[in-house]
Design goal:
heterodimer, A: mainly alpha, B: mainly alpha, Rna Polymerase Sigma Factor, Chain: A, globular
């Protein structure tokens, strides 16, 4: 929705009734003063603040990345140590159970050579030489 | 450095691009925020806008103009600020009387400007603008101060062009009435 006032302000209407002309000029003058009123000049302090925060953020991201890498390395190292300890423990358990097994089960000792066989061996040796 | 190179520079966190962006856009961001919020104390808002820009620039695909994208960020940051202010009933340093007098370029209608300046004290001007809602002030700033097209305004505000025209018509109408002193401005 636009009326003649809007059209004149937007530059769509070239001719404006004299009774409206003053009002339009007044409006434009007000806007000009208002535009100057809301002029903003950024301070050096603001630039430094924004820039510092940006640098701090970069450092923060970098620091976080390093910390994460260190954490991963740490977890991996810890896991390796734990793993080797488990292997050692398992090995010790196997050895221990083997010892236990050997000590609890009676082993069959070699039978002494029978006298008859002994004579046969002597006979064989004397036959050879 | 054109806009595309500036955006690429910002995406690569290039210091020169950042500096250029700051000095070129900070005055604009500040004046929009001043108008929308009706306050002179907008350093925090400008800083917040820059943080949002630097955070989001990598996702900016250039589908709209940088200024359009930036306008949206300013409006979002200002809306957040207004919500917070409403919640905490925070007292702001509103358009003050101790402001230095405004500077403006002399133009063909300088006489009318002089007349209006003589008639209206800074205090009266502030009172008039404070009688408008933030969105009315924003619409007037976008169109009459910044000279944005209706299409750009519709893009920024996410509403049809017809809605922008109608809202602006009402905002201008309110200001016209206030300037005539028909709304208790004087």
């Amino acid at each position: 929705m636009k009326d003649l006032f809007d059209e004149y302000l937007d530059g769509d209407a070239m001719e404006v009734p004299s009774e409206l002309e003053g009002e339009v000029e007044r409006y434009r003058a007000f806007i000009k003063i208002y535009a100057a009123r809301i002029t903003y000049r950024p301070s050096e302090r603001l630039y430094r603040n924004v820039f510092k925060r940006r640098k701090f953020k970069t450092k923060l991201v970098l620091g976080f990345a390093i910390a994460m890498a260190a954490l991963v390395v740490g977890i991996f190292g810890f896991w390796r140590i734990m793993d080797s300890l488990t292997v050692q423990k398992e090995y010790a358990q196997v050895v221990e159970s083997a010892i236990e097994k050997f000590s609890s089960q009676p082993m069959e000792l070699p039978k002494p050579v029978a006298e008859k066989d002994f004579l046969n061996i002597i006979g064989f040796v004397s036959d050879v030489y | 450095m054109n806009e595309e190179r500036l955006i690429q520079g910002l995406k690569k966190s290039d210091k020169e691009a950042f500096e250029r962006f700051f000095y070129e856009y900070a005055p604009r961001i500040g004046s929009i925020a001043k108008s929308y919020l009706g306050t002179d104390d907008v350093d925090d808002i400008v800083q917040e806008v820059f943080i949002h820009v630097l955070k989001g620039i990598k996702r900016f695909r250039g589908e709209s103009k940088l200024s359009t994208w930036l306008y949206r960020i300013i409006i979002n940051v200002c809306n957040d600020f207004l919500k917070k202010r409403k919640r905490h009933r925070e007292e702001l340093v509103d358009f003050g009387d101790e402001e230095e007098p405004p500077y403006f370029e002399p133009a063909s209608n300088t006489d009318v400007v002089k007349e209006v300046l003589e008639e209206l004290s800074m205090d009266a001007m502030n009172r008039i603008m404070k009688k408008l809602s933030p969105s009315d002030r924003l619409l007037i700033t976008m169109r009459d101060v910044d000279g944005l097209s209706y299409e750009e305004m519709a893009n920024i505000l996410g509403v049809p062009i017809g809605t922008v025209k109608s809202r602006l018509h009402y905002a201008r109408g309110k200001l016209r009435k206030l300037l005539q002193g028909k709304d208790g401005a004087k």
